[in-house]
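Hi again,

Forgot to attach this to my earlier email, sorry! This is the prediction with zinc ion bound. I've pasted everything inline since the attachment limit keeps bouncing my files.
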Amino acid sequence: MLRVLYEALMRTLILLLCLFPLIMAAQTNDPNVEQLKQMTARFAPTPIRVDTSHLSSSDKQALVKLIEAARVIDSLFMEQIWSKNLETWNTVKNDHTPLGEARAHYYWINKSPWSALDAEKAFMPGVPERKPLGANFYPEDMTKEEFETWVKTLSAKEQQEATGFFTVVRRDANGKLKLVPYSEEYKQYLQRAGDLLREAAALTDNATLKKFCNERAAAFASNDYYASDIAWMDLDAPIDITFGPYETYNDELFNYKAAFETYITLRDEEESDKLKAFAAHLQEIENNLPEDPKVRNPKLGAAAPIRVVNSVFSSGDGNHGVQTAAFNLPNDEKVVAEKGAKRVMLKNIQQAKFQTVLMPIAERTLSKQQQSDVAFEPFFTHILAHELMHGLGPQQITIDGKKTSPRQQLKELYSSIEEAKADATGLFALQYMMDHEKEMKLEGVLNAGPEAERQLYTTYLASTFRTLRFGITEAHGKGMAFQFNFLVDHGGFVQNPDGTFSVNMQKIKPAVRELTHTLLTLEANGNYDAAKKMLAEMVVIRPATQKLLDRLSDIPVDIEPRFVTAGELTASTTKAPPAVPQRPTRPSRN
Ligand code: ZN
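Structure tokens for the complex follow:
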């Protein structure tokens, strides 16, 4: 007992000693109103609208319930991030000084007092200098070592729960660590959200949505998410929702604990048809890839399902910081082994990002006469092609008589090469389908012809700058630098005297073919040393490119979504549920 007390005292002392200078530093360096406005301006307010006219009247009523249920998740998520988050938020949103309003606006974007774009640094006083690594999933004073030592003392089943998605770790009255299931820890929120999901289930006329809503509501009470994850994989409805604890990024200590998020969306019928048409031709594209015929896959496996949807509303982990434009779920390996995973692409969020971020980038990086060729349709179609192309090209290779994979051979280089491969092969595939539009019966599905080709490559050029402006530290940036430099070296992209770039329409097609060939060959050969040498040369930002990227610093990084349709749907029928922090409504925000 004494030892426990002593340890608790030491922990508090150490914590105070650690935090004190940080809190002091935060106070002196806190951003002022102007600085907060600049930080906030990196997220451009963008209205998110969806056409709901094709929904049945019962589905429309179900949709309202789902939006209400999703709003509950904002509070739950904020509690998951920090024990004093809701309390602090309530104080901040009631501070109507200019500084208070600036803080509240940025707080709501981040759903916390820490700035996601600035390495989770605090932007106001009286809070820890950085977002807690373990968020509110573990006691704030718990170390990695303490957790690991404790886990070893548990039974096999408890160990699984301790390192699993759906429990938090707390201290008991004696300061000892203990497990609390989400169903208990977040009971007040989960009951309310579960009730609303059941109401939605009773209203909708789609059987798969009904099933998912009921199963997920049951999971909130039982803490067993398996059946509802299976129901989510089978969900095939005009209203498509993702609703529950999923991603583990907010647990920076161990990546074990799932944060709650929601995406309330409507299926995009047109893009779903386009995907189906593309998917029917994947084998033909594989058979014509510019690669060694020996590595060709004579029979492609079934592709993972892709859903294209338009977002009506999102909340929790699904609406803070940089907006998610696509995701792969579930993460539970047991479900993935049995049912695979599903990719969901949020088309209207991509479109909002395109308008707000990509168009201004195009205006500063492309020649005047090519700017009019930048268009959303080819941008999104290329993203679809990119996703499909991950399933093409070398998957199984043989090296020295041994069966292996490009991922195993290329190790940490693989993801950059694979992302570049999906991009380049995506361009190649779209060109191939344009060239064979009639034989492949793609008329009406895919735009073809000289204008469509100009749009495809010019939009792609603009999008390379969108990726490169964030540097070349992660796989997409690295892969993009490789492609960009390669296409410049092969004359497909050319720099103009004023520093902007243009597409050379005569050279871009053979250059893309050559690029595709190079990347597929890197994967087919699985030669780590050769790949490493090539990447060292190609994955760089050259001075002329950097000069151009420097022109983009004041363009927004991302959008701040304003869910207009969701607001209209819920305002007319119901009162907002109580005890949920609503974003402050101020004229400047609309
Ligand atoms: Zn990818």
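The radius of gyration is 25 Å. Residues 268-300+344-550 form one domain.

That should be everything now.

G.
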